[in-house]
Design goal:
This protein has a domain of 102 residues: Immunoglobulins (Immunoglobulin-like, Sandwich). A hairpin with a 3-residue loop joins strand 11 and strand 12. Strands 1, 4, 5, 6, 9 and 10 form a six-stranded mixed β-sheet that branches. A two-stranded antiparallel sheet has the order 2-8. By secondary structure, it is mainly β. 0% of the residues lie in helices and 51% in strands. The two termini are 36 Å apart.
Length: 157
């Protein structure tokens, strides 16, 4: 699974139908779009469908900073985590500039992905035998009722 977004964040970059049990790894690229070298900082929180914490980046609750040249990108990479619950996972990510007095310059808060349980492919079932009964009326010496069943031919698999 890969979600790509360039800063500024796309307002909705979530994906759906992630199979239960897959692993996630968040990479976010921040860009210094100024003409000076800047300190870029980032933090994000990922929560499961029950709002429980899945990942806090960086894990020490502080902003992770990187000195980034003018017009340059910096990649921030989180840790691996498992999608272990069905439902929508969310992310709240913030990109900062100015280490001494941090200012949020971009961010995204919303759906990260929707995790689904993949159903096992079902084996093809034999078609239900539909029996068509055709009444036959015999007339002679009295009335007799009988019926004939028409059973479809089974095809070889």
């Amino acid at each position: 699974m890969e979600i790509r977004s360039r800063s500024p964040f796309i307002k909705s970059f979530s994906i759906s139908s992630v199979p239960l049990g897959q692993e996630g790894l968040v990479h976010i690229w921040g860009q210094n779009n100024t003409t000076l070298k800047q300190a870029l900082g980032i933090s994000w929180i990922i929560r499961d469908p029950d709002e429980l914490l899945v990942e806090l980046y960086p894990d020490n609750k502080d902003i992770e900073w990187s000195d980034t040249g003018a017009g340059q990108d910096h990649e921030f990479i989180g840790g691996r985590f498992e999608f272990f619950k069905e439902g929508t996972y969310t992310i709240d990510a913030k990109l900062f500039m100015n280490r001494d007095n941090p200012v949020v310059v971009d961010g995204y808060a919303g759906a990260l992905c929707t995790v689904v349980v993949e159903e096992e492919p079902e084996e093809p079932e034999e078609p239900e035998e539909k029996i068509n009964w055709l009444p036959i009326i015999l007339i002679g010496g009295g009335v007799a009722l009988a019926a004939v069943a028409l059973v479809p031919k089974k095809t070889k698999a």
